[in-house]
Design goal:
alpha/beta, Rossmann fold, 6-stranded mixed β-sheet, 4-stranded antiparallel β-sheet, 24% strand, globular, binds adenosine-5'-triphosphate
Length: 229
């Protein structure tokens, strides 16, 4: 699903590379945590997979596509095949829950009748039935993240990228969000999640890729966050 081969990324204004000769393979259906201290390159990794930025050297393939060969005009289509969830939810504040989710279908040209059918199904999946008409500010943080997950998942993406999705949530709400991401993973969607949350990583025992100063220092199946961090 994701294949990185000797990928390095240097930002113009930085002295050391944000990613330094990183080679990683993630298979379809895996659930992978990307951990590491602040500045270790986690977000950079996710941004390269999303093709929000390009590597300085090395090759990246996502879902069979070589991103280095992807024409600029095909980048939006590539991004739409992936789902993304962020720490700060990034909902459209003036749109209701159902409009936020429906919008993801509108932009890919799904007919109105299909949108009317699919949106309630996805809202039920994330446990937000009954809240479709609310605006984001009328929801708790955990509910807002559920909307963001519903929006990311409504196109049934092959891959869901989550950058610190529980970063703004309390432990109980975070655990609920993780149950939801697990459920999405069980549908066959590959999940790649950057996190600082040691409790979540330790309780889920999934693959852990640890970055330090832009290098992979650990890649373990059924890993833990690590001692003393
Ligand atoms: N747009 C940018 N321009 C210059 N340097 C950048 C840019 N984005 C990130 N960096 C640098 O690249 C390195 C990796 O940053 P990145 O955001 O990928 O780390 P991270 O592991 O996601 O950190 P955090 O956990 O704090 O989100 C850092 O040294 C950072 O300062």
């Amino acid at each position: 699903m994701i294949h990185l081969s000797h990928v390095s990324k240097s930002y113009k204004t930085s002295t050391r590379p944000a990613l330094d000769d990183v080679s990683i393979d993630v298979d379809k259906g895996e659930f992978v945590f990307v951990i590491g201290p602040s500045g270790s390159g986690k977000s950079t990794f996710l941004r390269l997979v999303l093709r929000e930025d390009v590597p300085t050297s090395g090759q990246i393939q996502v879902a069979g596509k070589d991103l280095g060969k992807l024409r600029r005009s095909k980048v939006p289509a590539h991004r739409r095949r992936l789902g993304c969830v962020f720490q700060d939810f990034r909902l459209l504040t003036n749109k209701t829950v159902e409009q936020n989710v429906g919008f993801a279908l509108e932009v890919i040209g799904r007919p109105r009748a299909a949108i009317r059918k699919i949106v309630p199904e996805v809202l039920e999946l994330v446990g937000l039935e009954g809240k479709a008409r609310r605006l984001p500010h009328e929801l708790s943080g955990g509910e807002q993240q559920r909307v963001a997950i519903a929006r990311a998942f409504v196109n049934r993406p092959l891959l869901l990228l989550a950058d610190e999705p529980t970063g703004n949530l309390d432990p109980d709400t975070s655990a609920d969000i993780m149950l939801l991401l697990e459920r999405i993973n069980r549908t066959g969607t590959t999940v790649l999640m950057a996190t600082h949350d040691n409790n979540i990583v330790d309780s889920m025992r999934r693959r852990v890729i640890e970055l330090q100063l832009g290098k992979v220092v650990r890649d373990e199946s059924r890993g833990v966050y690590g001692v003393g961090r």
